[in-house]
Design brief:
single chain, 140 residues, alpha/beta, TIM Barrel, four-stranded parallel beta sheet, 3 helices, 4 strands, globular
């Protein structure tokens, strides 16, 4: 039996996401400016990043922005690194930073869950409570 394919009746929507908010001061300013000028439609904040406190403040000042949390397990840049928010020896190098990538490791799934919980708790601790949070995303 063949199913009838129906054309979409609603117009397509373009979602422009401001990714990695908290990575840098300039990035935070640019992401907020894009949203205020109608370019950006959502933002993902990077919790263990160096400019996270500023990102939280900017998001508090702009409560209508849809925000997602960018859960982080790697630190791929050479000159800017971030660390796990929880004690996760299997996720960090000898200097305490995330590895640039994740290698096969039997205990990683448990440690990932613990670290993700730490990211969510830090966000909550910083007073970022809103009804327009959306799905989580992370890079592995």
């Amino acid at each position: 039996m063949l199913n009838t394919v129906h054309a979409q009746t609603e117009p397509a929507r373009l979602i422009i996401r401001g990714d990695d908010m908290g990575f840098s001061h300039a990035g935070n300013l640019g992401i907020i400016e894009c949203f205020k000028n109608g370019i950006g439609t959502s933002i993902e904040v990077l919790v263990p990043s160096p400019w996270f406190p500023e990102a939280v403040q900017m998001l508090k000042e702009n409560p209508s922005i849809d925000v997602g949390i960018h859960l982080t397990l790697t630190s791929e840049w050479d000159n800017i690194k971030w660390r796990p928010l929880t004690d996760c020896p299997s996720l960090k190098d000898q200097d305490g930073y995330f590895y640039p990538m994740i290698w096969l490791n039997k205990i990683i799934p448990t440690k990932i869950c613990w670290h993700m919980h730490g990211s969510l708790m830090k966000l909550k601790k910083n007073g970022e409570h809103r009804s327009n949070w959306y799905c989580v995303k992370f890079h592995v």
